[in-house]
What we know:
Blueprint: H1 2-21, H2 32-39, H3 42-64, H4 73-100, H5 114-123, H6 127-134, H7 139-142, H8 144-164, H9 168-185, H10 193-198, H11 200-219, H12 224-243, H13 245-250, H14 252-256, H15 258-276, H16 286-293, H17 295-315, H18 323-357, H19 362-367
Helix pairs in contact: 1-3, 1-16, 1-17, 1-18, 3-11, 3-15, 4-8, 4-17, 4-18, 6-8, 8-11, 9-11, 11-15, 12-15, 17-18
Amino acid sequence: MLRGLSIFFVLMNHVNIRLLGADVPYTNYLHPQLLHLLVWNGQLGVQVFFAVSGFLITSITLRRWSPLSEVSLRSFYWLRFARIVPLLLLLVAILSGLDLAGVHHYVVTAKTGGLSRALLAVFTFHVNVLEARRGYLPGNWDILWSLSVEEMFYLFFPIVCRLFGRGKLFVLTLCTFVLLGPFGRTVFAHGNEIWEEYSYLGGMEGIALGCLTALIVSRVRISRVALRFLGIGGAAIVICSLVFSWQAYRGWLGRTGLNMTLLDLGTCMFIAATTQVQWRSPRLLAPVLRMGQYSYEIYLTHMFVVFTFFDGFLALGKSMRLVPLLFVVTILAAVALGAVVATFYSEPVNRLLRNRFATQPSSVLESHAVSSKS
Length: 374
């Protein structure tokens, strides 16, 4: 559910950015509070996603290898490769072809280093660094900044587990990233607005809190009263962080970088509570759950949908009456495309690679197929 909400806010934000870039004054008709809730929370959505990813990967690793110091580097890397790389390679191949063909929206300019520089950044996990130094890449490339943060985490996570998985140093390492997160968004950004949002430390904070949450949930049985406090309190923090995101950003929390920390903390409180009580969301939220299930595929492919429908909107004369329809149709089409890509490409390839090359028996791998969609 949290991943579904995250990708929803990312989609809304990216449609909003295109509309504002085309000088479509649709915001004049919305209350500022509602506007910021609906279309300016894309970055917060990604931050929630980081926390969820940290929780998922640590929980899955604990189930496969316990203690964490017993994690198999080869298996861990291969499982992550099988999940992430096939779709990433397909995306990069398509984007490279569109760049070489000179298609509008997809050409990497010389200012940012051109196609070869973008490819190097993608495959060495530093798209965020490239953009902080040279400016934003085209939309389909830009979204890969968050993947650079997660891939860097996946690169070092099993190594840290092997070295410190049995002792307190592992927890200390995670706490260090949590403490450094706000500084990564403020002091260490040195006024670079892109780096304030795209820094490794800023993203690692959420991932580290998710990891700590998984460790606590696996070792501590929390009382019913505490679980109720965690669930309600966490949900309230997340809701308030999203509803009052603009006020938090402009206020003390934003200036200190703690607005994201608070959101991560609320997310992890909610995760901890719902995990221990094995809470199931109501059927009413089934569409959100579906978005969360295909969140990786939606995230990597949604800009194709955004650009396609936005160009159609422009061709129809930028009618204000079509703006609500643009948002709705774009979201529905992006989810549909993500589901198709997942069903007919990424999931079959994922299963094929896992069953053929991973060291664990295929039955073990398949038992975690849904959980590992992080």
